[in-house]
Amino acid sequence: MAKKITIAIVGNPNSGKTTIFNNITGAHQKVGNWPGVTVEKKEGIATYDGCTIQVVDLPGTYSLTAYSLEEIIARNYIIGEKPDLVVDVIDASTLERNLFLATQLIDLGVKLVFALNMVDVARSRGLIIDHEKLSLLMGVPFVPTVGSKNQGTKDLLKAIVRVAEDRESVSRHIHINYGLDLEEEIEKFQGLIRTSASFPDEHHSRWMGIKLLENDEEVIKEIEKSPLKKEVLDQLGKSKAHLNEILGEDSETLMADRRYGFIHGALKETFRQTQMDRRYLSDQVDMVLTNRLLGFPIFIFFIWAMFQLTFSVGQYPMDWIDAGVGLLARVVGDLMGEGLLRNLVVDGVISGVGGVAVFLPNIFILFFCIALFEDTGYMARAAFIMDKVMHTLGLHGKSFIPMIMGFGCNVPAIMATRVLESRRDRILTILINPLISCSARLPVYVLIAGALFGAYAGNVIFSLYVIGILLAILMGQIFKRTLFRGEIAPFVLELPPYRMPTLKGTLIHMWERGSIFIRKMGGVILVGSILVWALSSFPQTVDYSRDYDMEKRTIQERYAIQKEELMQSWQSEKVQLLTREMNLKIAELEALRKDEFQENSLLGRLGKAIVPFLRPLGFDWKGGVALLTGFVAKEIVVSTFGILYQVGEKEGEESEGLRTAIRNAMTPLIGYAFMVFVLVYTPCLATVAAIRRETGSWGWTGFSVGYSLILAWILAFVIYRGGMILGLG
Amino acid sequence: MNIRKLSELKTGEQGIIERVTGVGRFRQRLMEMGFVPGAEIVVEKFAPLRNPIEYVLKGYHVSLRHDEAEKVMVRTLEEQTEDD
Lengths: 729, 84
Known about the structure:
The complex is a heterodimer.
Chain A: E1 3-11, H1 17-25, E2 29-33, E3 40-48, E4 51-57, H2 69-81, E5 85-91, H3 95-108, E6 112-117, H4 119-124, E7 127-129, H5 131-138, E8 142-144, H6 153-164, H7 180-194, H8 202-213, H9 217-225, H10 229-247, H11 251-268, E9 271-273, H12 281-289, H13 295-313, H14 315-335, H15 340-357, H16 360-376, H17 378-392, H18 400-405, H19 410-415, H20 423-432, H21 442-453, H22 457-482, E10 493-494, H23 503-537, H24 548-568, H25 572-600, H26 602-609, H27 611-614, H28 621-629, H29 636-644, H30 656-665, H31 668-680, H32 685-695, H33 698-725
Parallel strand pairs in A: 1-4, 1-5, 5-6, 6-8
Antiparallel strand pairs in A: 2-3, 3-4, 7-9
Chain B: E1 3-5, E2 14-20, H1 24-32, E3 40-46, E4 53-57, E5 60-64, H2 66-69, E6 72-76, H3 77-83
Antiparallel strand pairs in B: 1-6, 2-3, 2-6, 3-4, 4-5
């Protein structure tokens, strides 16, 4: 008979929880997010002995207090969703600390299996664990596993099924004894809580008593909503005062102390350390990697290598994808008849999808590198080395990776903020990240600085990068002091031993994060691209100031006659020359027509509509349109100028024609203000989608768009007006 | 007995945790990670910029910023033997 059970996997960070999850579920897993938050939720299916096991991977936590998002998610799932069984993955080499979470799970009174992971590492360090005796003492089966070698997976599944079906003989519910004084107080709460009908369960009321003494905010909130509020809270005050009086410590400390006391007692009989030397290979590696002199150069080298791999090596597949999309657009364009539908498919859908697909190599390579850093344990060291620098900017050591990635592209950079554990750090890093000049802004700088500053172009571009970094520091400080005041996340960072990553594990890690980009952001970018296409394509019918078709025909007819004459006199070179001349004239005419069309399109009208806002900055409507299209991707500013200044959209930032046009349209002062505006204003569509995705909030997304727009305007205004006053205009 | 701040210990120095001051999440986090009275702690090394500091506690490595380590009070072993 097919049975179905649901299990949840918990465990400390770095306990090898993910590897155990991968071993159990194999390839049958899906990644999503917990509702409303950007903490990854992984689910998978395993089968064993005719049982279908639904596996939910809970976030890694050190404890089940209510202090961090991860802890609350893990706890609410266990209490609220009531899985049939919970598997706690315990790192055998740091057994004592890992058992802290185990004691909290025992308090919860759920069915448990403990996976005693990395027993090979523990053994090599001379740690001898009598896991059978430990099982009897704690009333929970301990199953030795080696996740990295997929050892013990069968045994673990067997234990899971046995415990779930109540066939495991060692399973029993034990009460952790917190000592006479604390037990007395816990009983008082238990008695009080059980008088109310809403909390009838014995285990649960004991657990609530324990949590009250641990000062658990979530349980206190729950009590505040119940009719027992007054009695329980009064009792809490009394109990705390009483405990402090007789034991000289607050109840939280006492509880943690007693937990470790219980663990110590259990390990006394079951755990031996035969080797006192604690110089392991990992520590020796670390002496080099975090060395006072070598630490920074090595770190910078790794970051440089990651950057190169992501953006230089990634450029090849990017070019292939770009070429592929171009080819697809041409083929589809040829197959479909001329008309609106073709334009929609080719210019809207295909270029929109292409715009997403082109990021894929970057994103997958970056996530592979990050997965490698995390799986080896180097990420924690990077944070260790960089923390002082980043902390002065109000950020966490780990923020360095997203910030440096921003120079390549803000989209993977913002996705890389997932390495940060605290939401405050994550949002702060996301907010200031777009101020780092990404590679898409460089073509704009090259065009404008190249046109207006000649030999000084290099210095001007460099100054823009510096302005971006300074603004990021400044805004970081401002946000830290205003929006995130008071919320200080402790640094307290575990430095796990270096481990050899498995290719499979790292690839799974990479795929999980990369696929989120495709699934969740693809849609937003696609819709955005179609919208911009529509804005620049409608209205379809324009009352042109000239009859372009007519003029085109006239030109063609005129040349046809000339050609006819030359053909008769056998002057084929002249015919060719003439044909070229004709094509040029027609192209000129088409450009004019396109320009007029652009001007009349919704986008052009929008560009003109925002002129009142841009005039104080010295920009004209063409600048406005360029900035509007730059919202799709900042490098589009260049091709828009190409269209608007009628030098053809195929011209790049190095085009002399375009440079001349820019020189005629802008003074150096306006050009500089324009570049600063491009640097700061609203991140591009893909970045906005990434921000929405990673903050999980339209509020923060809107804030990011809004503040950068306002900041850009103010800066451009100050530069332009200030420059005018100084006589630089 | 000499009670010192954990942040004052030098590389290689050892101490026994007396108590953790500070409040809320920080304190709770330290407690659950094993910073409980009686636990042995060793200074492993300082970061290249002297901050944060890496410690070994209960068989694992953990790093604290200087201002966090200031909130952990320790008893140093040498002082203890003098008292004996």
